[in-house]
Amino acid sequence: MEQRDESPPVRTASDELKDRVKIQIKSALDGITDPVVLELAETIFDGILRVFTRLDLIESNLRKLDTLMENLSILEVLHFEIRYLLEYVETKAISTPGMSKRMHDVLDGISYGISHDVKRIFERELIGEIREQSTPVVYGKILHTHGLLTNCFQQSLISLLQAFNPALDPFHIFDDYEERLRQSLVLCNDLAVLMRVVRNAESEPTSDLLRTVVQQVLKFRDESMQYLMYRDWRGYERLALALVTSIETNGDSRNLLHQFGCYLEVLYGHVKMRAVLRDLFPSSDDESEEEETSFRGL
Predict the structure, then answer these.
(1) Counting Cβ atoms within 10 Å, is residue 179 exposed (0-12), middle (13-18) or buried (19+)?
(2) Domain containing 140: what range?
(3) Would you call 259 exposed, middle or buried from its count of C-beta atoms within 10 A (0-12, 13-18, 19+)?
(4) Distance of CA 60 to the CA centre of its chain
(5) Which residues of the chain form beta strands (DSSP E)?
(6) Which of 48, 78, 132, 298 is the most exposed place for a label (fewest CB within 10 A)?
(7) How sure is the predictor about 138, in pLDDT bands with cuts at 50, 70 and 90?
(8) What's the chain's average pLDDT?
(9) Final residue of a domain: which of 146, 172, 198?
(10) Overall domain count for the chain
(11) Residue 2 domain-assigned?
(12) CA atoms of 74 and 26, how far apart (whole Å)
């Protein structure tokens, strides 16, 4: 019989990414000596990897329009699995006796960030009779959801890995430089716009300017905030809520406007120190490694 020459399967960028992720996870797990922490870390890493597997399938299906309904079914399963992972983190991992404060804060940040995005996606984006909507609408919603979840779980993975290896550079895993550059530039621009609006209202708090502040604050929360580090989300939402509430109840908002403006300036400074913006915003100061490699669409 004639022997068939079978060519080896072609490795894709996704395969290479999975290899890099698995190497970093193995390195992190190998360094854990506490068996309780090891079990927790293994379970959470497995949950995150399962999400990436589902997202890979959705991405491959997006090239074929006749699989849109299949993608919606995958998202339903993914929603359940993410909820299960969140429940594990919130009810078992975070409350584990002897958990270090650093690990507790990392898990708390991951839980907060994932919960925020899941609520946004499954309670605002994918609601109603979506299966009955037109193909372009369904495609757009799935594409947007895929992007949000990818960003969300990339940051969650990096945060957890850096808890065990603080020197880890996200560039060694996720090499989508152009996308991270785009996200960081969008973030810088939107922060600059928001700062200008807030400062204008602080110097001249007319009703029109204050109304613009409320609109821009909420717009940033719903759009560009996703590119910030998880650790900054709570601070933004807390100050934003206080400011918006004060404005909408006709309170004296000058102090809150000033405080919020100062906070935005700090965020803006941190974003400009990201590695992908290093050449665009050169700094003579020696900043900490943590701030230079901050990750949320780095």
Answers:
(1) middle
(2) 13-172
(3) middle
(4) 22
(5) none
(6) 132
(7) confident
(8) 82
(9) 172
(10) 2
(11) no
(12) 28
